Amino acid sequence: MKSLLANVLDHNRDFVARREYEPFATDKFPDKNLAVLACMDARLVELLPKAMGLKNGDAKLIKNAGALVTHPWGSVMRSLIVAVYALRAEEICVVAHEDCGMNSIDPGAILQAAQDRGINGKTMDTLRAAGIDLDHWLRGFDNVADSVNYTVGIIRQHPLMPPDVPVHGLIINPHTGQLKLVVDGYSPQATGDA
Ligand SMILES: [Zn+2]
Question: Helix (H, G, I), strand (E, B), or coil: what is residue 145?
């Protein structure tokens, strides 16, 4: 039985040998001058770009659990800033989705699962004693529209984000690919402080 990694590497050898990369040729600058922050949900791997009309080379695609910006100085915000100033992104779309794993995620259950997998409970006590709020760090959201509004607001109000970059907020249906508009970045008043 071949390992997952061996399968990936075998496929890759064939992929390159058959020059199957040729249809994807492009450069590092997004042709649609767009940066997308989306959820890492596996159902969106192909569905999200297809549903948004994006092909290889069209957009900077940043993914994490829940399409969230959890910290104004974390890696997601840094990626968006770099996309805008160095990689010609002129608009940003935050795309969360219905039925997201980060909706009502239970930090306690995750920490329990970590202990079940052999992470020492004392390690967690030490982290908490050092001031790391593990439950806060692992939290998700209760309402996906509120979450999109909140993340759009963090990006919009970031001190290094130029005010003329529209930041849109959308929710995608992970089955049909249908997009629901939550924040129209062209209308600043739509960007609530939720
Ligand atoms: Zn998700």
Answer: helix
